[in-house]
């Protein structure tokens, strides 16, 4: 296919507005995936993704489409649907000339949509507005079109109304892709530059790299160089995604495809890196490459100390496929041997935990997530601290800085008050409020990331009855009056429960935390004091009274099956406990600090 008949596009949509359903319909209508082979939602092919109903890893698919009797090649590049992965979104948009903006006609513009549309416009993409779900009785496409025009300033005079589910408007969308999205530049004569927008690890073939050729051409057998990592390889196999991998001999500027080159870890072929030829290098790499920086850290400890080597193996395996996952060994007198792990955000953290437990059969205790603090020490050094229990002593630090994010919330006006209250409780700094329509407003705050980690998103949803949406981005570090709060259980310091808080909140957090721990820690055979302290000063304390825990006392007589059941239940309850000194502490207690009233 000549370059002028290629169209590269992606789909921008808020979660649940119908991106996957539309992608499936496009594949079906173009005959790319024969209906009988059609698994539900072809593009989301990770189990975990399907279960959670969200798109995590991006993928690509090539479609053939006849327009005015000429064959066109349409490459759909999928984007992940969560803020943790916004860098991946930006790279896949950079690989396209256009994007479909899919908005649910019964809902309206949401925060995530906005963030991605701005990214697309910054990348000079042609944006085609698509109003989905017009089959729903509550659909108001005309109102939503107006909203898009007012909020984004995008001309919607030729917006397309569709129902991905019913297959209405799909041909119109395909026509619009050909008519309105510009073809790629024909720069096949230049030295090779290809943009990596995704990569994954295959146990048999090594890393498979997905890329868009921006300039030049690449052939099977070529010696290629990754400009950011500096590593070079021979391209054993190249091909296109139709959407299954299909080998070809050569790919030209404008095309999208994959390479397999015996690459051992995705860290060597990072999203955003530029592929060039080893012997005919491009002068400059493509703009926009960024290292993955973990923003959120937590400790992962096996409940059974014997599982430590298994946990290390599992983390190493996951890292082959996840360049953003960072980990290093951590030892704690309370928890034994484990790892301190870094993640892009909370969702990323949950996904990794879940995979470790599910795919690798590990039983883990996870400590509360922490952000990375920057500590200016009295000796002039600046150290980064991602583990509250390792914060330098007060005498050794001059000041502590914490990461600040800008958050934008979109909400129906009825919930403005309660969202303002929520953000104020979380040390949010009000920046701006705008009415985007008569009934919906956008609120902008600057807030410490530490206050957002945890249940902020859940609170935003519950206080707005599910109607508000949000988006955040890191803006920098700021000095703040922060101190370390320690917890003693049965007079023993439990480092994993240490937390860094603002001085003004220390007393209230201390009180709430000890109360919460009292609820969560089961009573023991002896009295257990629970204390919160700043340095050596106790600022709050509670105590668990003793109990004789004889579960069998309840079964009078000799019903043996009932007895077994009770014993089993107790054993299962024990599974997620960590013995700290003489006290069994359940998993929930380690997360208690996130769920204080
Ligand atoms: P993420 O993958 O989480 O980003 O969501 P998504 O945007 O891909 O949404 P998805 O395609 O999974 O659709 C969300 C829900 O909306 C599903 O239950 C679909 O069946 C439904 N849906 C999608 N398109 C339509 C439509 O045109 N009409 C109706 N009535 N429902 C639709």
Strand content: 25-35%
What is the share of helical residues? 10-25%
Q: Cα-atom Rg, whole angstroms?
A: 27 Å
Bound molecules: guanosine-5'-triphosphate
Low-pLDDT sequence parts: 48-58
Main β-sheet, in a few words? 8 strands, antiparallel
- The number of strands is 33
Return the structural class. alpha+beta
- Gross morphology: globular
| End-to-end separation | 61 Å
Write the layout of secondary structure elements.
Blueprint: E1 6-13, H1 19-29, H2 47-52, E2 60-67, E3 70-77, H3 86-94, E4 98-104, H4 111-122, E5 126-132, H5 141-152, E6 160-161, H6 170-180, E7 193-202, E8 206-215, E9 217-219, E10 223-226, E11 232-234, E12 237-241, E13 245-248, E14 250-252, E15 256-260, E16 274-277, E17 296-302, H7 308-320, E18 326-332, E19 336-343, H8 346-359, E20 364-366, E21 373-377, E22 382-385, E23 397-412, H9 416-425, E24 429-435, E25 440-448, H10 449-452, H11 456-463, E26 469-480, E27 482-489, E28 492-493, E29 499-502, H12 506-520, E30 528-534, E31 537-544, H13 560-574, E32 577-580, E33 583-586, H14 587-590
Parallel strand pairs: 1-3, 1-4, 4-5, 5-6
Antiparallel strand pairs: 2-3, 7-8, 7-16, 8-15, 9-14, 10-11, 10-16, 12-13, 12-15, 17-19, 17-20, 18-19, 21-22, 21-23, 23-25, 23-26, 24-25, 27-28, 27-29, 27-30, 30-31, 32-33
The structure holds guanosine-5'-triphosphate.
């Amino acid at each position: 296919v000549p370059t002028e008949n290629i169209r590269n596009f992606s789909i921008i949509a808020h979660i649940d507005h119908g991106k996957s359903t539309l992608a499936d319909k496009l594949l079906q209508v173009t005959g790319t995936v024969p209906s009988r082979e059609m698994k539900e939602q072809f593009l989301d092919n990770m189990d975990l993704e399907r279960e959670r109903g969200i798109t995590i890893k991006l993928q690509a698919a090539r479609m053939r489409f006849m327009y005015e009797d000429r064959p066109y090649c349409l490459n759909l590049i999928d984007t992940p649907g969560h803020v943790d992965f916004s860098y991946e979104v930006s790279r896949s948009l950079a690989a396209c000339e256009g994007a479909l903006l899919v908005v649910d006609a019964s809902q309206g513009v949401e925060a995530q949509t906005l963030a991605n549309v701005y990214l697309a416009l910054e990348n000079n993409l042609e944006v085609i507005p698509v109003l989905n779900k017009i089959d729903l009785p509550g659909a108001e496409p005309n109102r939503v079109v107006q909203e898009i025009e007012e909020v984004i300033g995008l001309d919607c005079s030729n917006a397309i109304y569709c129902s991905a589910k019913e297959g209405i408007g799909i041909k119109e969308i395909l026509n619009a892709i050909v008519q309105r999205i510009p073809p790629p530049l024909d720069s096949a004569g230049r030295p090779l530059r290809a943009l990596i927008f995704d990569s994954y690890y295959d146990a048999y073939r090594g890393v498979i790299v997905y890329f868009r050729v921006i300039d030049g051409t690449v052939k099977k057998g070529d010696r290629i160089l990754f400009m950011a990592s500096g590593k070079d390889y021979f391209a054993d196999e190249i091909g296109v995604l139709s959407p299954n991998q299909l080998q070809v001999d050569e790919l030209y500027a404008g095309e999208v495809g994959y390479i397999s080159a015996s690459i051992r870890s995705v860290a060597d072929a990072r999203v955003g890196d530029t592929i060039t030829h080893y012997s005919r290098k491009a002068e400059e790499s493509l703009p926009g490459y960024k290292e993955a920086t973990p923003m959120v850290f937590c400790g992962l400890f096996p409940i059974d100390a014997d599982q430590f080597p298994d946990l290390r193996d599992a983390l190493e395996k996951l890292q082959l496929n996840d360049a953003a996952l960072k980990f290093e060994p951590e030892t704690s007198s309370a928890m034994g041997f484990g790892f301190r792990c870094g993640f892009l955000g909370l969702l990323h953290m949950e996904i990794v935990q879940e995979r470790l437990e599910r795919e690798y059969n590990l039983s883990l205790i996870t400590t509360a997530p922490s952000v990375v603090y920057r500590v200016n020490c009295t000796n002039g050094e600046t150290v980064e601290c991602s583990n509250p229990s390792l914060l330098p002593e007060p005498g050794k630090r001059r000041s502590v800085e914490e990461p600040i994010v800008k958050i934008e919330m979109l909400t129906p006006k009825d919930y403005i008050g309660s969202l303002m209250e929520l953000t104020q409780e979380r040390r949010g700094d009000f920046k701006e409020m705008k009415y985007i329509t008569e009934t919906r407003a956008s609120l902008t705050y600057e807030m410490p990331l530490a206050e957002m980690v945890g249940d902020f998103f859940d609170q935003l949803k519950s206080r707005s009855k599910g109607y508000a949406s949000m988006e955040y981005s890191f803006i920098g570090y700021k000095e703040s009056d922060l101190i370390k709060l320690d917890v003693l259980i049965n007079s023993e310091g439990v480092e994993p429960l240490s937390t860094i808080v603002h001085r003004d909140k220390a007393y209230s957090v201390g009180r709430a935390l000890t109360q919460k721990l009292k609820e969560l820690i089961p009573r023991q055979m002896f009295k257990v004091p629970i204390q919160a302290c700043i340095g050596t000063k106790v600022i709050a304390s509670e105590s668990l009274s003793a109990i004789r825990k004889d579960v069998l006392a309840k079964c009078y007589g000799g019903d043996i099956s009932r007895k077994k059941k009770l014993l089993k239940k107790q054993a299962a309850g024990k599974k997620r406990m960590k013995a700290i000194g003489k006290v069994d502490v359940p998993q929930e207690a380690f997360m208690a600090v996130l769920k204080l009233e």
